[in-house]
Amino acid sequence: MIKESLLVAEQASQREVVPAGDYYMKVVKAGQVFRILDLEGNQAADTLFYNADDPSERYSAMDTIREQGNVYLSAGSKLLSNEGNLMLEIVADTCGRHDTLGGACASESNTVRYALEKKCMHACRDSWLLAVAENEQFGMSKRDITHNINFFMNVPVTADGGLSFADGISGAGKYVEMKAAMDVIVLISNCPQLNNPCNAYNPTPVEVLIWD
Ligand SMILES: [Zn+2]
């Protein structure tokens, strides 16, 4: 569902451009609104959320999908934790829908999806592992990397129940915006993927904005 935001970028308290292949790992406080802006279009922001007070509580695709009765995420979606608590709500969305079924790219999936010699190419899972290693203050490790949201990714479920990676429906300047219901650690891998026609083999930066 398309829903525009009333928030003005110039009034954001934090703004940070995340280059393709880089990560973003910061706490968004309860009540703050944060936006991921697809600066050039058809980028994928592979995102995980954790309770900042106890990272063993984290975003759950299963609980979120079951409770909303919809496999896609958009404005109005309530992002639930593995304990059934509301973590964030999508309050604005100019892209229309986001995937939470397809998972993130990894060196293993690169070999299955593309070619064996793609194994050593940079993937989202590598960025997440680097993020948790470089941010010891959160006390997280490899075991905390779980299923994610692919903001701006178009992964339609086919009539026979399969998944297909389709051409992106995002574009330059489209965004998704969420209001935090608890203090959350936001961990984004801005996808470095060079093998997927969805992004025209050209990963691009996103911008993260936060309003108090
Ligand atoms: Zn990726």
What labels describe this entry?
212 residues, alpha+beta, six-stranded antiparallel sheet, four-stranded antiparallel sheet, 3 helices, 12% helix, 27% strand, globular, binds zinc ion, DUF1989
Explain what this protein looks like in three dimensions.
With 212 residues, the protein is an alpha+beta fold. The chain has one domain (16-211). The protein is built from three helices and ten strands; from the N terminus they run ββββαββααββββ. The chain has helices spanning 61-68, 107-113, 124-134, and strands at 14-18, 23-28, 33-38, 45-51, 78-80, 86-93, 149-151, 174-180, 184-190, 206-211. The strands form two sheets. A six-stranded antiparallel sheet has the order 1-10-3-8-6-5. Strands 2-9-4-7 form a four-stranded antiparallel sheet, covered by helices on one side. Strand 5 and strand 6 (86-93) form a beta hairpin. The longest helix is centred in the middle third of the chain and has 11 residues, at 124-134. Zinc ion (ZN) is lined by residues 44, 46, 104-105, 123-124, 191, 193.
Task: Briefly summarize what is shown.
It holds the Pfam family DUF1989. With 212 residues, this protein is of the alpha+beta class.
Can you count the helices? 3
Order of strands, widest sheet: 1-10-3-8-6-5
List of distinct ligands in this structure: zinc ion
Instruction: Write down the secondary-structure element order.
Output: EEEEHEEHHEEEE
Q: In one word, what is the shape?
A: globular
Low-confidence runs (pLDDT<50, min 5 residues)?
Answer: none
Mean pLDDT: 93
Tell me about the biggest sheet? 6 strands, antiparallel
Pfam family, one: DUF1989
InterPro entries: DUF1989 (IPR018959), UAAP2 (IPR017791)
Protein name: Urea amidolyase associated protein UAAP2
Organism: Neptuniibacter pectenicola
